[in-house]
Every structure is written in structure tokens, then in C-alpha cells.
Structure to design on (472 residues):
């Protein structure tokens, strides 16, 4: 019997290393015992030398499955994974057999781990540490499975500028604003019992509780009672549930209230007729600041109109303003704009002779800490903003439109267009202009591999060079 001793309960790397050696040594699953604790990786009888065998690979889905399953609390999780690994060599389609007992159990464990990670994101409550040298928050949480390591990055992204710790019985994590570290598990006594903000939070929670929409079974399914003891609002839940019927009857019997005049909705612009010939680019730029055709204006600093000569031969259409453009009020002045400028220069196209604009005129984003992260506009938002793009096209009357990315293509053509299949083709538009489709420069910025980025950038320059060639 070969006994494998892993360093910790979620030792994925240790399990993978041991499983690889065992499989190469043709050590059968029933000849391996897995345990967690101090000691050598192969504590008792080490496996024999690897036998000569045809190398085999496992599908990426198995790696993803194994990373999740090792976070489960089942004692036999490592043995189950090795048993599946052993079978994969002779049964390469095993993971597709959902009726197989081993596969079905592993998938159930993966689902439970993912659910535990989701619940951690939803029910962690931070409390401020009193008298700390710097503003610091600590949360105590008891996850159903060992998911802290796989979930901690979510909190780092969300609270990037806040020092915090999350304590669990299995492990603790600490973020100092620069580095994320992990340490041994803790007890509930190591976390603050409460802070001065919790009374405000309970008041807010009670105020948004809608008795008319109460569904106790659905509520306890999404927020199981095992998490209540660590939620400051949990003390209110039994009373709110008990009083829900009386409150609902009171709501039904009450007279409707008059909305506050201070909360009157912002006036919407009249829907102008896109067929009329009125308007200039400066007038359009002013009107965009008052646009209420969709809700993106609410969180944006300002609308960002197009920029360039009124009668430019080429119009470049991007997706939407970024963070820098939203603050500056000008299109393509951030990192993507700088890459566009460099590519235009290499293609021999002068930017000051182009009209540059976006399919959507307001910056759509979500907050992560103090950062505003880009969010792709939805179809309804693209359609609502297409009125402005159509007006720009009528005024500028370009001979060629270059659509950068999928959102721009959808706005120009009025439907989704496959970027890769459409690239290199010239399309005739209803107004007599021609159009080509290429990638957005922000796509190039996101490529992690430098070699791939260089190839993609060269293709992008070639697309812009072709655009110049279409106009002679």
C-alpha cells in the first residue's frame, strides 16, 4: 500500500504531483491511501519506478474539476479524483458520462463547492477594527467547504484599496492593499463582534424588506440559516417574517402617496426625426449632453461626442468612451486611443483628417473599489444610441466607415456581425458609403502574450492600411 501524505486539506499541487507519479508508475487506485498532515509526500511505501507506457493527457475539464473537488470536505475526494484519473487513460470520454457513479459524484461535489464560493461572496460581512493604525476591516465566515483560496481574489478586486482580512476555521487571508497572503485558520473570537455601522445597515435592511414579495422557502434556500449567525441583519429576519402579513395588509389599505417634487424624473429629449436635415456637429455635441434615451447618462461624467472634420472621408466608430474619455469629454484619448494613433501613423493615415466617434456616447462601467471598470453595452443601449450615430453619418457623409469591434459593427449595420469572418471584406451600406470591420484596439491591449499581441497589432495596421487604399 502506498500512503500519500499531502501538506494541507486543499493541496492541489501536491495531489497533482503525486497522482502523476502514481499513474506513471501504474499504481492502481485500490493500492493508494491518501491522507493530510505532516510528513513526506509518499510517507510509507513509495511507488516503484515509472513503467514504460504511452504518454497520455487529460482534458482541461478534468483539471478544472479536480481544482474544485479538492476544496470539498469529503474525506475521499483525493481517492475519487485519482480513480477518475486512472480511468481516463482507457476511457477518454469518461467525463461526458454523467450517469457514471464517479463522475456524477465529482460533479455534485464541484457544484457544492461553487455554491459555497457563491455564498461566501454574498454573505461575508466586514467589521471595522477599532484603534487600528490604518483603516482595516475583518470578517468571520464559516464556509460549507474550503473555498477561501479560490474566492479571495473576488474580494481583492472588489475592495482593492481597503485593508481587510477574512477569517475562517480552515484558513485566513489578509490583504494589505498590495499583496494577498494566507495564514492558519482562526476562531470567531479573533474577529470584531460588531462596529458602529451595523445599526445603519440593519435600518437599511429593514427599510428595503418588502413583505409583499416574501417567499420564506426561497429566502432560506438562497440564504441558509447556517449563515445567519454571522450576519448582523439576521436578528431582524424572524420579526420581519412574522410581521410581513400585517404590513402587507396595511400597504393594501393605505392611500397612494404623492411623489416628492424633488425626485421628479429628468426631462427626456424629444425623439428627433433622423430624416430631417437639420443640425451641425457642434449642435449635436451639445445635444448629447442632455441625452436620456437610455440610463447610461446617470453614472457617466458626461456624454462624449465624435470629433473630426465635418466632411471627413473616413469615419472610425469605436464601442464607447473609456474612463479617460469620460473625464476628458473626447473620444479615443486613453490607452486604446494611443494605440489607435500609433497604428494610424504606421498605416499612413492622418488622424486629424478622420472623424472619430463611438457607437455609445456614455461610459458604461461598474465600480471595483475606487476603480471604474468597463462593461460592454447591451443591445438596447446600442439601439438607443444609434440615433446619434446615424445623425453623425448624415452630417459627415463619410465615404468609408471603419467599425472597431462587435459593438461598433452592430451599431453601423444594425445587427450583430462576426468580426473574424467579416474582417477583410468591404460592405456597401444603404447610404452609399462602404464599411469594413476590424478589432478594437482595446482587444490588443488585453492580449497577455507579447508574440500574439505583435501579430494582432500587425494585422490591425494592415486593416487600416487597406482602409486608406480603398480611398485611393
Amino acid at each position: 500500500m502506498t500512503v500519500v501524505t499531502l501538506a494541507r486539506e486543499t493541496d492541489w499541487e501536491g495531489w497533482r504531483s503525486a497522482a502523476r507519479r502514481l499513474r506513471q508508475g501504474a499504481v492502481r487506485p485500490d493500492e493508494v491511501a491518501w491522507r493530510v498532515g505532516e510528513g513526506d509526500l509518499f510517507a510509507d511505501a513509495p511507488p516503484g519506478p515509472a513503467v514504460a507506457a504511452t504518454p497520455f493527457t487529460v482534458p482541461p475539464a478534468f483539471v478544472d474539476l479536480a481544482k474544485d473537488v479538492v476544496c470539498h470536505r469529503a474525506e475521499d475526494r483525493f481517492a475519487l479524483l485519482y480513480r477518475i484519473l486512472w480511468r481516463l487513460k482507457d476511457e477518454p470520454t469518461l467525463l461526458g458520462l454523467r450517469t457514471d457513479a464517479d463522475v456524477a459524484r465529482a460533479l455534485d461535489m464541484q457544484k457544492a463547492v461553487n455554491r459555497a464560493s457563491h455564498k461566501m461572496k454574498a454573505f461575508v460581512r466586514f467589521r471595522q477594527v477599532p484603534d487600528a493604525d490604518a483603516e482595516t476591516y475583518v470578517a468571520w465566515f464559516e464556509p460549507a467547504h474550503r473555498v477561501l483560496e479560490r474566492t479571495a481574489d473576488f474580494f481583492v478586486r472588489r475592495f482593492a484599496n481597503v485593508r481587510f482580512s477574512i477569517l475562517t476555521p480552515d484558513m485566513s487571508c489578509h490583504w494589505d492593499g498590495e499583496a494577498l497572503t494566507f495564514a492558519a485558520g482562526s476562531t470567531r473570537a479573533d474577529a470584531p463582534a460588531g462596529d458602529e455601522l451595523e445599526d445603519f445597515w440593519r435600518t437599511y435592511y429593514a427599510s428595503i424588506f418588502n413583505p409583499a414579495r416574501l417567499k420564506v422557502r426561497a429566502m432560506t434556500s438562497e440564504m441558509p440559516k447556517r449563515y445567519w449567525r454571522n450576519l448582523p441583519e439576521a436578528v431582524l429576519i424572524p420579526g420581519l417574517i412574522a410581521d410581513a402579513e400585517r404590513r402587507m395588509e396595511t400597504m393594501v389599505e393605505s392611500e397612494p402617496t404623492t411623489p416628492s417634487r424633488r425626485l421628479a424624473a429628468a426631462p427626456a429629449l424629444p425623439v428627433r426625426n433622423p430624416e430631417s436635415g437639420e443640425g451641425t456637429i457642434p449642435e449635436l455635441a451639445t445635444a448629447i449632453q442632455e441625452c436620456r434615451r437610455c440610463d447610461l447618462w446617470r453614472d457617466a461624467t458626461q456624454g462624449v461626442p465624435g470629433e473630426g472634420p465635418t466632411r471627413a472621408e473616413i469615419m472610425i466608430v469605436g464601442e464607447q468612451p473609456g474612463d479617460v474619455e469620460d473625464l476628458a469629454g473626447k473620444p479615443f484619448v486613453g490607452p486604446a486611443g494611443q494605440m489607435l494613433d500609433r497604428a494610424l501613423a504606421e498605416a499612413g493615415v492622418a488622424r486629424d483628417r478622420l472623424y472619430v466617434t463611438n457607437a455609445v456616447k456614455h461610459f458604461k462601467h461598474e465600480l471595483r473599489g475606487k476603480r471604474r471598470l468597463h462593461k460592454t453595452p447591451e443591445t438596447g443601449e446600442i439601439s438607443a444610441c444609434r440615433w446619434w450615430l446615424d445623425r453623425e453619418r448624415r452630417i459627415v457623409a463619410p465615404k468609408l466607415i471603419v467599425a472597431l469591434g462587435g459593438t461598433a459593427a452592430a451599431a453601423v449595420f444594425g445587427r450583430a456581425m462576426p468580426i473574424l469572418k467579416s474582417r477583410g471584406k468591404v460592405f456597401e451600406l444603404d447610404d452609399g458609403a462602404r464599411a469594413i470591420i476590424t478589432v478594437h484596439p482595446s482587444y490588443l491591449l488585453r492580449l497577455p502574450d507579447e508574440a500574439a499581441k505583435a501579430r494582432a497589432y500587425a494585422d490591425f495596421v494592415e486593416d487600416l492600411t487597406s482602409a486608406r487604399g480603398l480611398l485611393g
The first helix runs from residue 12 to 24. Residues 45-52, 262-278 have pLDDT under 50 and may be disordered.
